[in-house]
Amino acid sequence: MSTLKGILFNQAATDAINGLIETLQTKYTKKKGRRFNSANITYEISRPHLNGNSLEFEISSKIPQDEIKDDDEMKNYFLEIKNKVNSEKDKPVSIEMENIVWDSKKDSEKERDYVKLLYSYPLDDLFNDKKVQDEYETVRNDPKEENLPQSTGAMTIAGGIVLKQVRETIYNFGLNHINQLMEANKTIRAQLKK
Fold first, then answer.
1. Residue 102: is its pLDDT beyond 60?
2. pTM of this prediction?
3. Which percentage of the chain shows pLDDT scores above 70?
4. Cβ pair 82, 95 in contact under 8 A
5. 151/64 Cα distance (integer angstroms)
6. Per 3-state DSSP, what percentage of the chain is helix, strand, and coil (rounded to 5)?
């Protein structure tokens, strides 16, 4: 059963990821749902969810099959992506290649391969006690409307500050991870064309 902390953190993370998706869909080509397209590769960010005392979300990208000759090259492309994202400071807890067969019009199937990265963060790593205390002191000393955090579900100013930090942290983690995956795809595609 979820705790109140988990429920509130999950809602703050959902707000952050939804905001990130809106930003990316505006910057790049918008696709259906939670997806966007950049340089002919579709990316998707899942809804965050609680898993025990951690918050998780997935980021995926389509493998550009039209640029890949055969299954061996497909596996190599995936391994290159895996090596690149595993070399980052903040590694995913899981990296998988997923094959999806999709029947859009009931008369033709489209087969697509995706790289799927799962990220997981302990709830207590999503905010900083010292920063919460500093911001709380600022608000307490100057309680103007613009200084007060706007956080649904927070019963106190400190709670609102914590949820604001959770939103900012998840947004920044998500943006960083999607940029890393986009850069990995760009680098590996350039190598394929040589």
1. no
2. 0.89
3. 90
4. yes
5. 40
6. 50, 25, 25
